[in-house]
Amino acid sequence: MPDRNEPIPDDHDPLRNINPTDSDHLDYVGQQGLAVEQETLIEPDPAKREQARSLWGDAWRDLRRRPIFLVSTVLIVLLILIAIFPGLFTGTDPRASDLINNYLRRPDWTDFFGGGWFGYDGQGRSIYARVIYGARASITVGICVTLAVTLLGGMAGMAAGFFGGWSDAVISRITDIFFGIPLLLGALVLLNAFSVRTVWSVVIALAFLGWTQLARVMRGSVITVKQSDYVVAGRALGAGTSRLMFRHILPNAIAPVIVVATIALGGYITAEATLSFLGIGLQDPTISWGVDISSAQKVIRQAPFVLFFPAAALSITVLAFIMMGDAVRDALDPKLR
Amino acid sequence: MTVNGATPVGATTPEEAAFAQEVQRGEPILEVRDLRKHFPLTKGILFKKQVGAVKAVDGVSFDLMQGETLGIVGESGCGKSTLAKVLMNLEPATTGSVKYKGEEISRLSGAGLKAVRRNIQMVFQDPYTSLNPRMTVGDIIGEPFEIHPEVAPKGDRRKAVQDLLDVVGLNPEYINRYPHQFSGGQRQRIGIARGLALKPEIIICDEPVSALDVSVQAQVINLLESLQGEFNLSYMFIAHDLSIVRHISDRVGVMYLGRIVEIGTDLEIYDHATHPYTQALLSAVPVPDPTARESRDRIVLTGDVPSPANPPSGCRFRTRCWKAQEKCEREDPALTVRAWLEGRARHDSACHFAGERENV
Amino acid sequence: MSTVADQGRPAREEPYTGPLLDVRNLHVEFRTRDGVVRAVNGVNYSVSAGETLAVLGESGSGKSVTAQAVMGILDMPPAAIPEGELLFRGRDMLKMSKEERRKIRGQKIAMIFQDALSSLNPVLPVGFQLGEMYRAHRGSNRKDAKAKAVELMDRVRIPAAKERVGDYPHQFSGGMRQRIMIAMALALEPDLIIADEPTTALDVTVQAQVMDLLAELQAEYHMGLILITHDLGVVADVADKIAVMYAGRIVETAPVHELYARPAHPYTRGLLDSIPRLDQKGQELYAIKGLPPNLLRIPAGCAFNPRCPRAQEICRQKVPPLAEVTEDDGTPLAGRGSACFFWKETLHDG
To answer: Which of A287, B36, B43, C249 has the fewest CB atoms within 10 Å, counting from its CB?
Structure first.
């Protein structure tokens, strides 16, 4: 139908025609009206000269203006601080069990100073202290798994997308196979193989199963970028494989990977909590939100707050990373909005 | 101008030595013989079976002379861009030979290929996609020096880049800017500067102005022409805009469905075309002159260009040609001078019935 | 003033004598993060039935935005029309209700785009898409609609229309797809067709076919045609009158012959001069210096002044109005206007 929302061809988009042209020299030409033969222009005033801005720079400028980004950044920085220095936020030992203080005792104002202002769990441990100390496991798993999958998936995707042909066929088929395994179910099976389960075994299990998502994103992105004229131009200049990969393709292909990885980070934190909840992830005495949620379910009728606080901490953390991912995506690719 | 060095420093491979020879003006610098590029059509994902081939370039021969501009015109799908890619060694040729200064280059790899790259460079069509958006202009134009460190010593590179910017008419102070801070015409100048950096002898321009605004096209054409004189370049100028090709070219080749159907000097092609396709192409070009509207004698071709995967037998143009006879179906016409032609019409044309158009 | 009811066929018999479309003092701006982009700054033009107006300009001149405003397909926001009138048969479309506007769009004014492939739905047969025009607007049944579709395809000279009516867009070549777009635009026999760079994406030999077809059909149906293009060759071939746009303004209007023979604006002159001519072989081409303006910061005064060989102090201070162009003795030249303080001098040197 010629009369509905037609995709207007790119060059008809007035906005597109404006942005590529930077402006201060035009401005300068416009106002001074000097000869612009051969477009050789001399800057009028060095102080006024606009900073050279890279696309990353633009994205950063854009990000700083987004409230969602600011809120999520503050949250994430706080969470990381808590994870690294839990002692700064509570003086209470999260493992100290005082059966006088069990979940049936209502917290009163004295608890505010004693570190028990979220109340106490079934074994009389301060819920507040446990929420604070539990951050470390969640954040560690989230960040380490994300780093690992970005690295693994990124390399696999880069190899598949860049070399194509057989290596692509093989890597893509492996990716497909892994993709068919549900993350949680797969992790359940894998973790059963570990006799002692620590944070690191959870990281290994999740990374082993999670890299395929990133590999796919990376592969698609690399294939798109590989066809760009500037990569062809690089080849025409005689650039070798590593230069093409790391100088031309990677910087242009990485943006969607970063976005997906940031959003996936929240998912890994949830996965860790879920595994711990199911009793197959982390175990007591490791302190983790998942473990606490799991033990809280036994007393949910009598004391719902025992469940509420670790669950809320988990939700806020996941939300913060997802918001951050959204903001980064919007900044890196305005077209996705 | 530091850019205009004559002999390369430190020729280490036999190719480099051969490429360092001087070629006299007007002598062939690039000889292309029966060049073919077929893209296989395959079926199946893991175990591929070839079921045919797109014959993008299918038997192209020509010489590029030192110091000249050879224009290549043709419509989309005629194989002109593939030809450029094959000559640039960006796509391997299926068969045929490309000789640069007498040295076969179509099957080179490694150091030999790298040496060729120094001598044959390319300017791309779309200035918006041909510059890496994550690199500064200085990095983009300086990259050739990083890949071929022998061209400019490390300390001189910044200066060399600034000289290049100056040569193409951009402010040397823009060295730290990113491509998106420039307009289309300025980006194309950056692309040209990158192509010039290695002091090549041949530059292949693939539709270098078709993505630019009309008022900027002329600037870039002028720049290309002045650079040719300054750096003693040979151009292969691929375009679909016939008037621009005529302006810049010494000789013109017309391509149709993977073949050159006619080649000659600009006068021979534009005023004395003997191939029906060239005649139709020329007559279809809109002339910016309303008074010519009534007097125009336009040949309107029927039908579409056949698929290059399955070109017609014999002459490829016969399916749309008003001169076609049974012979055209049987025999593939050679690109040669027909005995009966005289004067300017005596030039290579791949038509059994080559002849100038009667003026109606 | 006509009413909604007589928007149908019979309206043609009404004694409306004015131009089909009259664009008056149209302004369009885009509100972006970087500021307000003034894409169209006071454009006036009109088209009558049977007339071809070519709007000539480079990217960013506002030629397409104007057409999109007329068509009513601008995304608002970010676009806004702060000022102006779009009179279609004497009625301002900007004051109409959404429903009225929708009825005009497609039925009375149709548009042809540059990129036929992305304008056609890839998962529906072309015949179905053509027939849908009749089903949606005329309430035809499936069978009639299909017959009409075949008829339309015949009319735009698609060979073997009957067999190809069930084919999908990708099965047609670029030229054929553009014909289908033309057929679709013609389906409801509109009064006005806006063709936005209809042949830019096509090859030269196909371009000629499509342009000829468009001109022929226009004459046959006595439609108004607005041809938006940057190609001086195409314009010379088909236009009756020309409006040259620069930085969101019309800088020159003229009947086609006069514009090419004696341009009255330095920009038009520059464009004409930069076409490679035979006698210039081996010489430097004339090139308009500088770059097209950034619409975020249009130069003060005449927008063309930084690139203009004739610019004087006044050009930097005042925006030249579109003045009537006359002969030396004051005889007015019909339909000619130039937004240049020095049109007289330009006309003379041309």
So the answer is: B43
pLDDT value, residue A24: 34
Task: Let me know how long chain B is.
Answer: 360
Query: B294 — contact with chain C (CB < 8 Å)?
Result: no
CB contact under 8 A, B88 and A239: no
The full set of domains in chain C, from first to last, is 18-239 (3.40.50.300), 264-349 (no CATH)
**A:B CB pairs within 8 Å:** 110
Query: Sheet harboring B49-65: ordered strands across?
Result: B49-65, B28-43, B95-100, B103-104
The pLDDT > 70 percentage for chain C reads: 94
Identify the burial level of C316 via C-beta atoms within 10 angstroms of its C-beta, where 0-12 means exposed, 13-18 middle and 19 or more buried: middle
Chain A contact present for B134, CB below 8 A: yes
The pLDDT score that the predictor gives to residue A13 is 38
Closest approach of chain A CAs to the CA of C124, in angstroms? 12
Distance CA(B218)–CA(B224), nearest Å, equals 10
CA A89 to chain centre: 25
The yes-or-no verdict on residue A31 having pLDDT over 50 is: no
Q: Dump pLDDT digits (tens) for B130-152.
A: 998 888 899 999 999 989 888 88
From B219, B226, B288, residue closest to C260, measured CB to CB: B288
Same domain, B235 and B108: yes
Same domain? For B138 and B164 the reply is yes
CATH architecture of A60-336: Orthogonal Bundle (1.10)
pLDDT, tens digit, 9 for 90 and up, residues A75-111: 999 999 988 888 777 777 777 766 666 655 565 555 5
Has residue B77 been placed in a domain? yes
Q: Which residues of chain A neighbour C30 with C-beta distances below 8 Å?
A: 14-15
Contact status of B340 with chain A (Cβ, < 8 Å) = no
Judged by a CB distance cut-off of 8 A, whether residue B313 touches chain A is no
Pair B194, B226 in one domain: yes
Mean pLDDT over each residue of chain C, to the nearest integer: 81
